[in-house]
Amino acid sequence: MTEWPESFPPACPPEDAVAAKGEFFRLVDDVPPVSDDFKSNLELRRLGVRFKGQRWSDDCIAAGLSVTQNIEDLKRLRESVGPMRKKKIAIGRVDGSGVMKATPSLSQASHYTWWRRVGDESWNTFRIVA
Question: Over the stretch 66-91, which tens digit does the pLDDT of each residue have?
Fold first, then answer.
Protein backbone atom coordinates (compact mmCIF):
# COMPACT_ATOMS: atom_id res chain seq x y z
CA MET A 1 0.00 0.00 0.00
CA THR A 2 1.31 3.45 -0.92
CA GLU A 3 1.52 5.91 1.93
CA TRP A 4 0.59 9.47 1.00
CA PRO A 5 1.54 12.57 2.98
CA GLU A 6 -0.85 13.53 5.78
CA SER A 7 -1.23 16.93 4.14
CA PHE A 8 -3.05 15.41 1.15
CA PRO A 9 -6.79 16.14 1.20
CA PRO A 10 -9.30 13.25 1.21
CA ALA A 11 -9.54 11.25 -2.04
CA CYS A 12 -6.14 12.51 -3.16
CA PRO A 13 -4.46 11.51 -5.39
CA PRO A 14 -7.43 10.99 -7.69
CA GLU A 15 -8.46 7.46 -8.62
CA ASP A 16 -7.69 8.05 -12.31
CA ALA A 17 -4.02 8.89 -11.65
CA VAL A 18 -1.56 6.36 -13.06
CA ALA A 19 1.83 5.10 -11.89
CA ALA A 20 4.52 7.75 -12.35
CA LYS A 21 6.80 6.80 -15.20
CA GLY A 22 9.06 8.59 -17.61
CA GLU A 23 11.27 11.62 -17.92
CA PHE A 24 9.80 15.02 -17.06
CA PHE A 25 10.84 18.67 -16.77
CA ARG A 26 10.30 20.97 -13.79
CA LEU A 27 11.13 24.59 -12.97
CA VAL A 28 13.51 24.85 -10.00
CA ASP A 29 15.40 27.55 -8.12
CA ASP A 30 18.58 25.74 -7.14
CA VAL A 31 21.63 24.42 -9.03
CA PRO A 32 21.74 21.53 -8.53
CA PRO A 33 18.09 20.96 -7.60
CA VAL A 34 17.40 20.34 -3.89
CA SER A 35 14.44 18.85 -2.03
CA ASP A 36 12.92 22.33 -1.46
CA ASP A 37 12.52 22.66 -5.25
CA PHE A 38 10.02 19.79 -5.00
CA LYS A 39 7.57 21.20 -2.45
CA SER A 40 3.98 21.39 -3.63
CA ASN A 41 1.91 24.56 -3.63
CA LEU A 42 -0.08 23.07 -0.74
CA GLU A 43 3.11 22.53 1.29
CA LEU A 44 4.37 26.03 0.49
CA ARG A 45 1.04 27.61 1.44
CA ARG A 46 1.07 25.73 4.77
CA LEU A 47 4.62 26.99 5.39
CA GLY A 48 3.38 30.55 4.96
CA VAL A 49 4.73 31.27 1.49
CA ARG A 50 2.45 33.89 0.00
CA PHE A 51 0.78 33.46 -3.36
CA LYS A 52 -0.65 36.44 -5.23
CA GLY A 53 -3.55 34.27 -6.34
CA GLN A 54 -4.60 30.67 -6.28
CA ARG A 55 -3.11 28.95 -9.32
CA TRP A 56 -4.80 25.58 -8.95
CA SER A 57 -8.29 24.18 -9.29
CA ASP A 58 -8.45 22.40 -5.91
CA ASP A 59 -6.29 21.31 -2.97
CA CYS A 60 -5.59 17.91 -4.51
CA ILE A 61 -4.00 19.59 -7.54
CA ALA A 62 -2.11 21.88 -5.13
CA ALA A 63 -0.80 18.79 -3.29
CA GLY A 64 0.89 17.55 -6.47
CA LEU A 65 3.87 18.91 -8.35
CA SER A 66 3.80 20.46 -11.79
CA VAL A 67 5.93 18.72 -14.39
CA THR A 68 5.86 18.69 -18.19
CA GLN A 69 6.93 16.32 -20.93
CA ASN A 70 7.92 19.17 -23.25
CA ILE A 71 10.72 21.58 -22.33
CA GLU A 72 9.28 24.21 -24.69
CA ASP A 73 6.18 24.53 -22.45
CA LEU A 74 8.43 25.53 -19.54
CA LYS A 75 10.58 27.83 -21.63
CA ARG A 76 7.46 29.75 -22.72
CA LEU A 77 6.14 29.89 -19.14
CA ARG A 78 9.49 31.04 -17.80
CA GLU A 79 9.71 33.86 -20.33
CA SER A 80 6.11 35.00 -19.92
CA VAL A 81 5.87 35.23 -16.11
CA GLY A 82 8.21 37.71 -14.42
CA PRO A 83 9.00 35.77 -11.21
CA MET A 84 9.67 32.61 -13.24
CA ARG A 85 12.45 34.19 -15.33
CA LYS A 86 15.11 33.37 -12.74
CA LYS A 87 14.14 29.71 -12.51
CA LYS A 88 16.09 26.88 -14.12
CA ILE A 89 14.66 23.91 -16.00
CA ALA A 90 15.56 20.49 -14.63
CA ILE A 91 14.89 17.04 -16.08
CA GLY A 92 14.56 13.79 -14.18
CA ARG A 93 12.96 10.35 -14.09
CA VAL A 94 9.86 9.75 -11.99
CA ASP A 95 9.60 5.96 -12.42
CA GLY A 96 7.89 4.34 -9.43
CA SER A 97 7.76 7.56 -7.44
CA GLY A 98 4.04 7.95 -6.89
CA VAL A 99 1.29 8.65 -9.39
CA MET A 100 0.50 11.29 -11.98
CA LYS A 101 -2.26 12.59 -14.18
CA ALA A 102 -2.26 14.66 -17.36
CA THR A 103 -3.54 18.14 -16.42
CA PRO A 104 -2.92 20.21 -19.55
CA SER A 105 -3.60 23.91 -19.78
CA LEU A 106 -3.71 26.33 -22.69
CA SER A 107 -0.12 27.37 -22.05
CA GLN A 108 1.23 23.95 -21.11
CA ALA A 109 -0.21 21.17 -23.27
CA SER A 110 2.21 18.59 -21.83
CA HIS A 111 1.52 19.43 -18.15
CA TYR A 112 1.12 16.67 -15.59
CA THR A 113 0.40 16.76 -11.87
CA TRP A 114 2.67 14.38 -9.96
CA TRP A 115 1.78 13.15 -6.46
CA ARG A 116 4.77 11.79 -4.54
CA ARG A 117 4.49 9.24 -1.77
CA VAL A 118 5.98 9.65 1.73
CA GLY A 119 9.77 9.30 1.66
CA ASP A 120 10.11 9.71 -2.11
CA GLU A 121 13.54 11.00 -3.09
CA SER A 122 13.25 10.87 -6.86
CA TRP A 123 14.08 14.59 -6.94
CA ASN A 124 17.70 13.33 -6.75
CA THR A 125 17.44 12.23 -10.40
CA PHE A 126 16.78 15.79 -11.63
CA ARG A 127 19.54 17.81 -13.26
CA ILE A 128 19.62 21.27 -14.84
CA VAL A 129 19.23 21.39 -18.62
CA ALA A 130 18.30 25.04 -19.29
Answer: 999 999 999 999 999 888 899 999 99
